[in-house]
Amino acid sequence: MEKWSLMTVTVLLALTVRWAVSLGSYSGAGKPPMYGDYEAQRHWQEITYNLPIRQWYFNTSDNDLLYWGLDYPPLTAYHSFVCAYIAKSINPDWVALHSSRGYESQPHKLFMRTTVFVADLLVYIPAVILYCSSLKETSAKKKASTCALCILLYPGLILIDHGHFQYPLSLGFALWGVLCLSHDWDLLGSVAFCLALNYKQMELYHSLPFFCYLLGKCFKKGLKGKGLVLLTKLAGTVVLSFAACWLPFGTDVEQIMQVLRRLFPIDRGLTINNYLFIFFQDKVANIWCSLSVLIKIKNVVSPQTQLRLSFAVTFLSLLPACIKLTVQPSLRGFKFALVSCALSFFLFSFQVHEKSILLVALPVCLIINEIPFMATWFLLVSTFSMLPLLLRDGLLLPYAVTMPAFLATCLASFSILDKTSAEDLQLKAFSLCLKGYVSWFKSFPRIVRTLFLLSLSLLAVLSLLSAAVPPPQSLPDLFPVSVSIVSCLHFLLFLVYFNVVILWDSKNSKSQKKIS
């Protein structure tokens, strides 16, 4: 009872913070003609309610794809339809075809914010609570609630979902998938991840760890016995899950192809200005945007060459973690591989949005109890990396409040500054390899703490400058570019760190014996 009363307080606190953030501005408020993501979600409700399914992804006189055309998988469209059905019963003007474009009112804002709250309460928050409650590492009752509190107070997700405006469903489904796999419910976990992937195609960031972990599990069981049975069941589950999600579009090949073209707009990315080198326009903290400050890559190589180059670098960067996970499948290795692979996709992919860092942040949240110091550091940097977007949306005050609040919560919950030894950072095996070669390794905890404090100071200074100081006229993008470069350098170091933990992880060999 005590455990669940603490969880109740945790959830109420998390909901209060979300409610406070939702009172502020949202993406594109009062900024015609395109407005922002808030209008995109409203427009999808308008389209899905008023047009037949066969027209949802096609450009027609009633569905201008250049004005927030649907570019997410079918589950997003179905969810928009459900929200639109409720909106229509409250006020038909909210989803009226054509005339509702750019609709803004306080009652409608309340409705839209409520739909995000409902998604949080039904999918994401229960998954967090159950995940933290099931952690074997949580020895005390208080640990589960403090872990849940830190995850639910992660500012990046709160500011994007309840400030900028976005639904947490794909991340929630992915978390349900991790939760199911942690209980050996492999088929349910596969269904949950299929739902995540069919809600947002960016869940491909997590697809390889799911695939490699389950495939490795089949190998360990033996592909001539139980392993083959499990592999067959998994394949059947995935096929049936996708078939159910795509059933309304499955009667026409052209329908399927058009949906796929909308989901993966490679050609649009190469030919239409709005999508050309999207990472350069949005100052995303990935490697291509950072390199473009020194080398104008788009002037050196063709878009097609850069597409192939980004694919090769992405593939090579995530290969070690995937091989290790397939050969030595373990839940711990699976969670760390989710982080490493998602971060590789974010850093090296061809088309990336700054919000995609949330796909890395989710699995980092899942290991905050194992490496609280590094997880807290990463989650702070990930929120900071979205600062230009948050400033555009008028979310400076929520950002300035939630960031220190999250840091204080982690400091109080995990005493993170006391957990910087090689063993605390899961680097003991790696440190033994370096002991004879690196003389300063004895000072490692002090060095790490110093770097952490310097990093936070840099983030605070750049945040203050971005918010309060006008940039020079000759360098209008000085602060957004600085934010992206600083964040990218952090992420590169984090990528190295997580891969070192994965490759030198001795705990994996112990936990994989349980699987086999």
Strand coverage percent: under 5%
Q: Tell me the overall shape.
A: globular
Proportion in helices: 55-70%
Radius of gyration, Cα only, in angstroms? 23 Å
Oligomer state equals single chain
**Class per helix and strand makeup:** mainly alpha
Number of helices: 24
Membrane topology: Multi-pass membrane protein
Keywords: Endoplasmic reticulum, Glycosyltransferase, Membrane, Signal, Transferase, Transmembrane, Transmembrane helix
Main location: endoplasmic reticulum
GO molecular function, one term: dolichyl pyrophosphate Man9GlcNAc2 alpha-1,3-glucosyltransferase activity
What does this entry look like structurally?
It is a multi-pass membrane protein. It is an enzyme of class 2 (transferase). This protein is mainly α and 516 residues long. The protein has a domain at 30-103. It contains 24 helices and no strands. It has helices spanning 2-22, 37-50, 74-90, 106-133, 141-152, 155-165, 169-182, 186-197, 207-246, 253-263, 266-271, 278-281, 287-291, 297-300, 303-327, 331-348, 358-366, 372-384, 387-392, 396-414, 428-434, 444-468, 478-503, 507-515. α4 runs parallel beside α7 and α15 runs antiparallel to α16 (331-348). The longest helix has 40 residues, at 207-246. The radius of gyration is 23 Å and the shape is globular. The two termini are 36 Å apart. 44% of the residues are buried.
